[in-house]
Amino acid sequence: MPATDEIRLSNWPMDYAVRPCAIASFFVFVAFLWTMPLQHVIAYPFVFLFFGAIMGSAWFGGMIAGFVAVALSSLFVTYFFVPPLYSMHVAKESQSFFAAFILCSIAITVVSSSRKRAESAIRIARDQLEAKVQERTAELQRSNLDIKESERQLRILTEAIPQQIWRTDPQGRIEYCNHHLCDYLGQRTEELKGEAFFNVIHPEDNALFRQGWQAALKTGDRFEIEARVRAASGGYRWFLVRSISQRREDGRIARWYGIHIDIQQQHRAQQNLVQAQDDLARMQRSLSMAEMAASIAHELNQPLTALVTHASACREWLQAKPANLEKVSATAEKIIQESMRAGVVVSRVRALFKKEEQVRELTSMNRLIQELARLLRDEAIRKDVSIRLQLAADLPQLEMDPVQIQQVILNLAMNGMDAMMQVAKPRELIIRTEKHGVGEILVAVEDHGPGIAPETAARIFEPFFTTKPQGTGMGLAICRGIIEAHDGKIWTENSVRGGAALQFTVRSQS
Predict the structure, then answer these.
(1) Which one of 35, 173, 275, 411 is most buried, by most CB atoms within 10 A?
(2) What contacts 303, CB < 8 A, 6 or more positions away?
């Protein structure tokens, strides 16, 4: 048998016999002693005194002591105070009084012991609650100390890392910036509250930065963007801005941590690479045109020489006296053969520009333009041009060659940016889409350049016609061929706001 059960059994006589009987005997004896002198002063004092004794016994000794007090009080009242006196017999006229006394005594016992148990339970619960509150308070204090120590260690770590680091609350409000970021911006953390945090972002990157940051705050996803950040000197450098959320145990966001990674050198190297690629592509196009011209000249040289020779011979035979018509006829036949041979040479060169089979895919024009805008971003920055998209939201998807259509828009956009190189800022290129009939989409590329002269507009899509010093005159001609292959048309007109607008339509091929 466990030791606790043995202790409990050994205490049972004391808890349930000796102690209740002693308490009941004490209170009943005290009530009897007070009743004896008071019965000569007031009527029936034993009723209230013995009720008090029963109530005190039940309150201090429990229900067992209360019932023991009821039994002892009944014996004392029967023997000393209910006629016939000094007898255990109750007279008939006093039986109802005695029964009421016993019932009231039992009720008092039950009520008093229950009230005592309830108050004891409340006191114990209060003590337990106070103990738990104190325990919880101590845990919270320890937890707060641990949190403060963790924050102190984290702040030391962020100050030691050679990167620009910041922290915000769940709503995205700046709470902390390490000294690397403050030194670069030339501002204190308190000066970067609210909108001031966005004011250090380059105006052209600000809208995209805000949009991405608000989306991250709403979804809780990771935030990452490349943007230019203003330094204390007023200049801008390219940074990769990353931010992740820290969540509580219940999944709610507690704060955001962000870092700025300097990518100025990488971005400059990327721009130089893009420029080198453009130069290489331009050189390759020039070389291809030179090779094509040399090939045509080489291949046509012999038939053209033969044509001249045969034409001269034909003229000699015609001028003879008399004219040798037989020789003229034979020479003319040779001229025809050489002409056909020249036509074959031209057809072979044209075959270089032919597609063996046409590619058609179900494509979203808006998605195509959005991808192209990202590709054009570095070139636009290099040329100090802003690109604005005005894309209709209800455009149908069309069967088209996405590579060719994107090449057309790229060619038009590059021409538009080149046209604005000599005009004052701001320089803005607008790419717009809208519905244009059933199953047809209109795309317009508008610049704010000097516009197109009427005499130039009439020939702008002709091969080898160009207004650029280094142009080949083939770009817009190829664009026209691609658009016409897609059952569309391309044209140009001057915008009412200044500049030129090159527009084309594409019809579904399905």
Answers:
(1) 35
(2) 338, 339, 341, 342, 345
Architecture (CATH level 2) of domain 275-353: Orthogonal Bundle (1.10)
- 378: pLDDT strictly greater than 80: no
CA dist 253 and 272 (Å) reads: 41
**What would the two tokens of residue 407 be?**
């090449």
Tokens representing 33 are: 């002693």
Say if CB 283 and CB 333 are below 8 A apart: no
Rg (CA), the chain: 52
User: pLDDT tens digits, residue range 130-153?
Assistant: 888 888 888 888 877 777 776 666
Residue 510 contacts residue 399 (beta carbons within 8 Å): yes
Retrieve residue 477's tokens.
């001609």
Average pLDDT for residues 28-42, to the nearest whole number? Answer: 77
Output b/e per residue, 48-62; b: 16+ Cβ within 10 A. ebbbebbbbbbbbbb
Supply φ then ψ for residue 487, to 5 degrees.
60, 35
**CATH 3.40.309.10 fits domain 161-262:** no
Residue 443's pLDDT is: 92
Q: Taken in order 73, 78, 83, 84, is the CA torsion positive or negative? A: negative
Helical residues (DSSP H) of 383-401, grouped into ranges: none
Considering the four listed CATH numbers 3.30.1490.20, 3.30.565.10, 3.40.50.1820, 2.60.130.10, the one that applies to the domain covering 361-507 is 3.30.565.10
Query: CA 59, CA 66: separation in Å to the nearest integer?
Result: 8
Q: What is the DSSP letter of 434?
A: E
Locate the domains of the chain by residue range. Answer: 3-130, 161-262, 275-353, 361-507
> Alpha-carbon distance 111 to 119, whole Å?
12
Mapping DSSP to helix (H, G, I), strand (E, B) and coil, where does residue 341 land? helix
Asked if 16 contacts 31 with a C-beta cutoff of 8 angstroms, the reply is no
The answer to whether the pTM exceeds 0.85 is no
